[in-house]
Every structure is written in structure tokens, then in C-alpha cells.
Amino acid sequence: MSGTPPDRPAARLSDRCRRGLAAVALALAVLVAAAGCTGPVRSDGVYASKAAATAAAAASAVQTARLAVQEAVDGRLFGRTLAQTLAEAASDAGDAQTTFDAIQPPDGRADVLRDQLDGLLTPAVSALEDLRIAARRGDVAQLPSLAAPLPRLSDKLEQVQKAHR
Amino acid sequence: MARRLDAALELLDRQLVDKDGRLAGKVDDLELTDPGDGLEQPRVTAILTGPDALAGRLHTRFGRWLQGVVLRLLARQGPARVPLEQVQAIGSSIELRVAAGRLDTGQGWARRLIGRLPGAGEGDAAQ
Amino acid sequence: MRLSDLLGAEVVDEHGRAVGKVHDVRLEQAGPEQADLGPGLRVEGLIVGRPALGARFGFGRGVQGPWLLRLVFGSLGHDGHDVAWHRIRSIRDRRIRIAGTADDLPTPQPSGD
Amino acid sequence: MRKLLEIALGILTAIGGFVDIGDLVASTETGARFGLGLAWVLLVGVVGIVIYAEMAGRVASVSGRAVFDLVRERLGAGAGLLNLAASFFITLLTLAAEIGGVALSLQLATSVNYLLFVPVVGFLVWLVCWRVRFELMDNAVGLLGLALIVVAVAVWRAHPDWGAMLHSATHPVVPTTESHAAYWYFAIALLGSAMTPYEVFFFSSGAVEQRWTRSDLLVNRLNVYIGFPLGGLLALALMVAAALVLEPLGIDPSHLSQAALPTSLVLGRLGLALALLGFFACTFGASLETALSCGYSIAQYFGWQWGKFVKPAQAPRFQLAVLVSIALGVGLVLTTLDPVQITEYAIVLSAAALPLTYLPLLIVANDPAYLGGKVNSRLSNAIASLFLVVLVLASVATIPLMIASKAGGG
Prior knowledge:
The complex is a heterotetramer of chains A (about 160), B (about 130), C (about 110) and D (about 400).
Chain A: H1 8-35, H2 44-73, H3 79-101, H4 108-137, H5 143-147, H6 150-164
Helix pairs in contact in A: 2-3, 2-4, 2-6, 3-4, 4-6
Chain B: E1 4-6, H1 7-10, E2 15-17, E3 23-26, E4 29-32, E5 43-49, H2 51-56, H3 61-74, E6 80-83, E7 87-90, E8 94-96, H4 108-115
Parallel strand pairs in B: 2-8
Antiparallel strand pairs in B: 2-3, 4-5, 5-6, 7-8
Chain D: H1 2-18, H2 21-34, H3 39-63, H4 67-110, H5 114-131, H6 134-145, H7 149-157, H8 162-170, H9 180-194, H10 197-209, H11 217-249, H12 256-302, H13 316-334, H14 339-364, H15 368-371, H16 378-404
């Protein structure tokens, strides 16, 4: 800043500028907070809602896979379309788990919730991966047995989602 | 009664259409005679068209910078001039007596580029 | 000189008081009316003052338009001044000095060609 | 007889050409998340695009001038340039989304990574824009798009409880699993997908391309009043199919594959094949329309010769603008940004910019200097003005809602 003392009009101007800048900075802060980036989560409530969202995303992927397998078994899907649908379901579930695991649980209670949800996500993701591999190989016969655990998993995931929404 | 026109409202940004009905750019500015010290009433001598004429209307640093960039890009000294005598009629668009090819409206570089592609057909004979 | 040099120029009266900015230039056909433009167009005067968005949308000229838009834009009618060219005393890089003062300038009529 | 054929062809093309990747994604996602809670917005969007598309077609037919040419004349060079920058950016984003949509359709049929298809699709889109006559292109793609009717057939064959559906559509309620912010965010996305600005640029420029005159006003009106609503029905069918099948299972679709599941569930492989053809045709058709619209908007702003009705060499800068836009669109998709994500941003930004397109159009449609006696009737002015208020409100609400609902994710 130049050393010369600011004369009257310039001083008044800089006051107005400073006030203006402060207002802009405040507005930006509010916007960023509202946008809810996935930084470390402080209160337990927010962690629970993140868990609920993850459970919903995983449940959606599992249900998609169940519907696709059911249609494939009934001969209503092409092999390649089934493979693509299952590949996307598997990647959705995997992404949901990686994003969720990256969040630092704030306290002990959150740890319990984390383990409970991971207990469902891990088998769900591996089941979907197995289905994707089987579909890409084209052996439709194996699909029903690989898809067997999906109904239980999707019910449990939906319970988690409802409990912590 | 001599016809009267509001230049900005009824000439500026109007579409130039050549004698074959081909579109030949917009009225981006008007060239006037210099009033000089005697301050005589300036006469409109030509219509100016081209991105550089358009950029010239932004009387800001950015406008002058943009004008420089556009001129270098189109490798031209100034905007295309359409002498006023070549104007046939003024309506919701400006009809010209001359073919668009005769006007140096900066189609050249684009036409050479596109002309190389198969099936481009040939441009106006005059271009 | 170009039209864009006049557009947006600052107009001041003989006492140096600001009259407004030029937002349009009125042209008239120089000499007797011949085919089309004949001897060409000459600057008759400047229209100075707030730009009339409503005029730009054509509300001054025959556009009835939805009343809602006329309500919003129509009201920005001509409240500028019509400065005849002969009143201009000097033009120096986008600053135009005229004789007389703002209030003895008529409000511009639509060119109505 | 020829006239009748022309009208029928025009209507069929309008139906098949209505749905694009924006409608596909928005209708399917809103059906899966809100059931028929947002069906009313689709109706509003269709009425809006009908009113303004008819105006655009009339202005172009009577004055021979397309929308963007008049936007600059009415708003002046400065405001016109801002309008061009916003409209071009959104149309380019939509072009990228459409090209991505074509690639996703091919991926769904072949299970080959969509990124491999993108450059090929880009080249094909350019080739058609460059060589194929306008009517042939418009009609062929529009008719192929009719394959999407299979979704409506699937809904019909599913024998849904029509009464309950009508009730849930006329008494919209926000599901407990969704926030109000998300509900209104998707309402705006749906409106943006139905009234995407490029549809007006393309429709008005198309009227000039096909050299429509006053005598074609009837064809214009029939195309719009019959073709667009039936096209809107296809979008509604996608929404209902998602509401019937995906919503009960809690599936939140974010891939084209999920959008096809309801149809294959009801109609099996034949249904799926037609659905895939429909997805391909409507996104490919929309890629052509958006690519040309990019060229139209720039060329019309600068006054360059434009259009496919002249040889490319006579409209070199227009053709160059189309070529560069397609290259930019392909480049954007090749950044591996998910095309469905690009689509969501494109339709939401469209919603935010709707007044930019529709205000000048409404003004020009009232100007006897362009339309003579064919200016808007009092009724169409009243409806159009009401819509403009809705569009301004939607436009203002877009960004805050986007933040509040964390882009629909909230």
C-alpha cells in the first residue's frame, strides 16, 4: 500500500469498497457452506444423512441388478445390454462405498453406523462384480445363484436409509 | 418530404442482402465525412461491415484490443466498405445493388478453407 | 469519422452542464428525393438522453405488443432531446458542446418513415 | 394429395424429433424419483414450446428471417452479443450431451465403451450436416425417432391403474425421500429440457431452410399444435414407465441402461431393440439440430450467409462454425465427463437462460414491420406473456435451487 495518507474522497471510497468486499466474502462463505462439500463432517446428524444417501445409492444399484437379472433370465434382455447394465450397477455401488469410506466418522456412534453399513456394502459390491463378470462371459445360467443375496441386501440397505434419513 | 431515418435504430445491426438475395453481413457501423472545423453536416459515405467494425463500437480498452485482434486474425487493414451508392433499398433489411462477392467481407479465408473439402461446390463466381 | 464516434458521446450545453449521451443520430436525405437514396444521407441532428429501450423494441412504431411488455418497456419512451446539428459548437473526442441549454431543446418525434 | 402427405410427414417428424437426451434423462429421472408428481411441469413445458415454436415458425415463414438474426436487431449489438454468448454456450453443451447420448445408446447395444464411439459419432454428425439435404435429414431422423413409441406401448401393455396415475399426476406431492428443493430443481430441469432454446433456433432456421412462405403457415401450425404435443406424450411415456417400474424399486436412474429396463420388462427383446433404436435416433437427430443451431446462431448474429440450402462454399463461415462446434462438443465428451451429467447441466442452464431467447421472439412476433398482418393474436400474446413471467421466475430460481438441492443430489 502506498505510504501517502488517503485524502477525504479516496478514504470514503475505500470504506465503501471494504464494506462491499466484506459483503461479497460473506455471501461466498454462505454459498460454499450451503453447497455442502464432502469435507470432514462435524455433527453426527450430517454423517447419518451421508450414510442414508450412500445406502440409497447402493440399494438403487442392487435393485437395478436384480431387475436386469430377472429380465435376462426371462429372455427379455440382450446379453450385451445386460452386461452393460450390470457393469454400471457394480460401478455405482463401488463409487458409493469409496465415497462413503472416505468420510471421517466424527465419533464412536458414527463408527458403529459405519461398520454396519460397510457390512452391507462390501457383500453388495462383490455380488454385483460377480454378476458383471458372469454376464460378460454370457453364462446366464449362473446369474440366479449369484443374485441370490441381493434381495436381503437391498432390504437391509433400505432399512438403513429409512433409519438415518 | 425528404426521408428521415434514425441511424442506430433503423440502419445499425440490419442485415445486408446482395442483389442475388445472398446475405452479406450486418451494418456494423456507418462511415461519415469529417465535419472538420467548419462543422458542416457530415454525409454518410459508406456502410461498414465486419467484426472489426463491430469491435470498434465498444469504446473501451477491451473494444480497441478486440479490434486489433480481429484485424490481425482477418489480416486486413479495416472493415469492408459498402459505398452508399450500392444500396438499393432500406427496409427491415438493406438490399444492395452489387453481389456479395464483390464486397471484401472477409469470406476469403473461410471460403478457401471450406472449398478444399469434397462437395463444397464453388463459391460465387466473383469471389 | 464513424457513426460509432457520435453514439455514446457526451453532450454539454454552453454552460458546460451535461445534457446527456447521444443514443441515436437522425439522418435526412440530402437534396431532392430521387430513386432510393439518390444523393445520399446527411446528419440532421443528434438524439440525446436515456436510450429508449421501448423504442428499440418498436413500441413507438406500430408494435402493439403484449400489454405486459408495453407496461415494462413501453414506459421507457423518448425523454431525450433532439439536438439539431447547427447548434453544435465543438466536437472533440466524444465530447460535444452545443449552444443554448437543455430545456430549449424539443423532445424527438419518432422518425416515422 | 401431395400437401396432405407433406403435412403428415411434418407432423410425424415433429413427433419423432421432439424427444432429445435432455427429455430422456429428465423424464426418466423425475418419473423414478417423484412418480407423476412433476407430470404437470411437462405439460407446461409442452404448451410453452408449442406457443413459441409456432411464433418462431411464423416469423421465419413471413419475414424470411430467423430468430437470432432478429435478436441482434432488436436488442442491439451489445445485448445481442451477450445473448449469443449465453445461447451458444448452452447449445454447445447440449450438442456435447447429445453426442454423448448417441455414444451411450451404442454402448448400451454393444457394451463397448462409449468413448470409442464419440469421435465416430462426431464425424457422422458433421458428414450429415455437410452433405445431406435439409428435408431428407430432418424427416429421416424424425421418422426413426418414432421408434420411441415403443415406450408408450410398454406402458399400455403394463395395464397400469390409470385412475391412480391420473390422481397422482393431478395431486402432486413431494415424496418423503425427497426435499422440496430437489422437487423444484427437477421441475426447472424438466421445463428446461422441454423448452431448450436450440429447438426455437432450429425450428425458425429450418423454416427458412425449407423456404417456407405465408402459404406454409398452416403446415407450421399443424406441425406444432399436433406434432409437439404427441412428442410430449413420448416424454410422458418415459416418465410413466419410470414411475411404474423404477420408482417402486427405489432405483434412481443415472444411466441410459436403467431408462430402457421398464420397456424390456414389458415387451422383451423386441421392445428393447426398438427402444435402443429410439434412443439412438432421437439423440442423433438432436445432435444434428444442435450442431446446426450452433452454426445458425453465430452466422445469424454476424449476418453471414448461412443454411444448407446454399452450397457449403457459399456459406463458408457458417459451415466452419458447425464444424468447430462439433469438434468442441466431441472434445467436451472425451474429457470423460459423464454425458448424463453434461445433460443435466445443459438443461438446467437452458432453464436459467430461457427469457434470453423468448423475450426477443415475443417482441418480434408483434412487429408488423416483420409480420404485416400475421402478428400475434391477443390470446397468444396473453398466454406468451404469462409464460414469460413463468420463465423469468424459473430463471431467477435456478441457481439458488441448484445450490440448495446440491444439483438435485440433496
